[in-house]
Amino acid sequence: MDKKQKMSAIQKAAVLLISLGPDTASKIYKQLTEKEVEKLTMEISSLRNVTAEKKDKVVGEFHQIALAQKYITQGGLDYAKVVLEKAFGYEEATKMLKRLNASLQVRPFDFAKRADAGQILHFIQNEHPQTIALVLSYLDPEKAGQILSELPTDTQADIARRIAVMDGTSPDVIREVEEILKRKLSATVTDDYSQSGGIESIVQVLQGVDRATEKTILDTLGIQDPGLAEDIRERMFVFEDIVILDNLSIQRVIRECDSDDLMLALRVASDEVKETIFKNMSTRMAVTLQEEIELMGPVRLREIEEAQSNIVAIIRRLEDAGEIILARGGDEIIV
Questions:
Q1: For residue 311, is it within any domain?
Q2: Is 258 in the same domain as 226?
Q3: C-alpha–C-alpha distance, residues 192 and 134, integer Å
């Protein structure tokens, strides 16, 4: 690698992984997407003669970024700037924060992480539903779910819908809302922005509310926008989530399942899902099912998805009937 040539971000990542060694690198790989792993692997394989000096430089830069991020997490950008300036001087601290801003995004309303749900609720409950939806879409899903649960019942579905259909929001609008809430909470905030809202956002929020609130919101949405409500329901629980059920609930679901659906659904399931299913049936039934899956010929993906959807529908029906319980962030613990 030419010493004078400026390294790209992917090259730096590849050098860092090489420097960390195979054990640590493999752990990092597990946190990446398949596409990211592919890009990094190709880059690593193309590297030649990386000098110790180059490795030290990349590791040092990574350490500085991690250090700056640590201070931001503890007290925001202003706090990080003060600490880094005292430790490394103004010039070096400025460089570190610039590198951090180039590699990391600090979400709007990040300051709200230090406020509890009750405080935020107090300040936003009388705002316009669109403003409330904007704030909730940026909060931690569990905290957003707690706040949504405490809002008036007649506004919950409207706010949930607004989060689900939210697309890009003007940075000026975000900044204005952010500054108002920031003043009320007397906290610090960054000017970096990222995308918020969408179906996945409201799904995460609803997974943090209690079952009663979720049902009220989805039932109301079902009247206002049936297609959206069904889309949200489908994403609230997917086949792979079956592992979160307790053993008795899984056994109850298995009794309701068509054997062909079960066989097809497990064809491409993860090892964790297969193990969870097999351990909740008799040894003989588990062995037979495993053999049938192994002997199964080519199957269309559409058929597998349909079988998994049928099983998810059974789980939903049993939950609605109160025969099984899906653990949710806002639910009380049942013993």
A1: yes
A2: no
A3: 16
Q: What total number of domains does the chain contain?
A: 3
Whether residues 217 and 125 fall in one domain: yes
The angle at the Cα of 257, spanning 255 to 259, to the nearest 5 degrees, equals 105
Residues 118 and 209 grouped into a single domain:
yes
In the block, which residue shows the tokens 């049942």?
334
Range of the domain at 259: 238-320
pLDDT at position 189 is 35
167, 121: one domain: yes
Which residues make Cβ contacts (< 8 Å) with residue 38, sequence separation at least 6?
none
3-state secondary structure of 267: coil
Please tell me which of 76-80, 89-93, 171-175, 260-264 the model is most confident about, judged by mean pLDDT. 260-264
Rg over CA atoms, the chain: 25
Q: Which amino acid is at 201?
A: S
Q: Which two tokens stand for residue 51?
A: 């000098």
CATH number of the domain that residue 186 is part of: 1.10.220.30
Distance CA 308, CA 260 (A): 11
pLDDT in tens, 236-287: 777 888 888 999 999 999 999 998 999 999 988 888 999 999 999 999 999 9
In a domain, 35, yes or no: yes
Contacts with 150 (C-beta within 8 Å, 6 or more apart), sequence order = 117, 121, 125
Reading the block at residue 321, the tokens are 């009937």
Lookup result for tokens 């192994």: 294
Alpha-carbon distance values, 35 to 45, 104, 270 (Å):
15, 19, 19
Which pLDDT band holds residue 187 (cuts at 50, 70, 90)? very low
Token pair of 302, please? 């559409």
Tokens coding 268: 């491409």
